[in-house]
Design brief:
Elements: H1 2-13, E1 15-22, E2 30-38, E3 41-46, H2 48-57, H3 73-102, H4 111-136, H5 144-164, H6 172-201, H7 207-236, H8 240-264, E4 269-271, H9 272-285, H10 291-297, H11 312-318, E5 320-322, H12 331-342, E6 350-354, E7 359-364, H13 369-386, H14 392-413, E8 417-422, E9 429-430, E10 432-434, E11 439-441
Parallel strand pairs: 4-8, 5-7, 7-9
Antiparallel strand pairs: 1-2, 2-3, 6-7, 10-11
Helix pairs in contact: 3-5, 3-7, 3-8, 4-6, 5-6, 5-8, 6-7, 9-11, 9-13, 13-14
Length: 442
Amino acid sequence: MEGDSTLTRQLRSETAVIEEWNGIDSSKLTKTATITVAGDSVQKSSRRFNHLSRRILDAFVPEGFPSSVTPDYVPFQIWDSLQGLSTYIRTMLSTQALLSAIGVGEKSATVIGATFLWFLRDLTGMLGGILFTFYQGANLDSNAKMWRLVADLMNDLGMLMDLVSPVFPSAFVFIVCLGSISRSFTGVASGATRAALTQHFALQNNAADISAKEGSQETIATMVGMALGMLLAHITTGHATAIWFCFLSLTVFHMYANYKAVRCLSLATLNCERSSILLSHYMETGQVLSPKQVSVMEHVLPVWTTLWTANTVKCLYQRVQLGVRISSLNSDQVVDLSHLASSYYKKGKYMLLARKSAISVVMHKDSAAADILQAFVHALVLAKLDDKDRSMHFESQSWMAKNYESFVLKLTSLGWKTERLLSPSVAWKANWFISSSDEKVD
């Protein structure tokens, strides 16, 4: 009993400090409270304001922010929210014009007529979305930046059509349906690219959390944009010049914000253009560029906007035709391919055929994702050596044997994802075997 009382007096004479920390990453924790215990006295010191602000922030950013996302997440979301805000403001102006053209507020307008026009508008949009998915669905993931811009451009065109529709009553149905088709492209492309970007931002397998918080951010932008749009629509009612000035000004800002948003992105996946930039630089200097360095060099605008530029890198990857169909080749090309199958690519998972302006890549039926990446890099090497008029196949085979594994290891060390090449799906493949009496390509 005496020992217990002595221990109790000793504990009462000591002071204990207990700290409360918040966060997922151990290197980026935030102290939220301090508890001091002196005898029977307990004192709590907490940062209530910081705690409250953090709780509010947690409703809009992923758990563990900022360590749970990539560094380009914040600048992208800022520009993305600004462009979204301008979109919702303009939506109020274009919707007001569309409803006016349908006849809302006029005694001569009928409910069945307005309903039919709205139905026709939605129907054409749905069909347009299906067709766009059929023709471009496999290409959206490999060019996320470009299609992100194209999606918003098509949305701008759709809203422009709605605003123009009252000016041409005789072509009203055609213009409205055209605008609906344009917006349907936006829905498909924007949704697909958003999924790819969400995977890019997720550093801790938290793609679902990022997607949910992005929805919260968009909801706030929508509410603010709708309120400002209603105010602007009320102010500009009956003033066509003011409506067009506001709409065009916001459209220019919208496209600028979108361009800045995609320029912030430093994607670590390998698509055709990024692979071309990396390989060309590596063959010339022996060094590998980081994702951030490549993001500054790659194009984010559609290809047709850069046709006048003489860019070797651009021409290099555009010369490669991945997954060529054997039956599409002529007799001479098939003979050349059979000779290559018996010499350079006898045991390979792909074959390369150099034609006048292109390098055709024929994939083996047993090829995997890693083989497609290797085949594409080999084709780029062949195209680059072809520009220098060398013995192409022998030189390219030698380069791949000496440098490919080292090239891939250096890419991985800088954070590049080398598991696969982001490209349109390779649907056509082939199988080849060589006998002692004749040579076949099947």
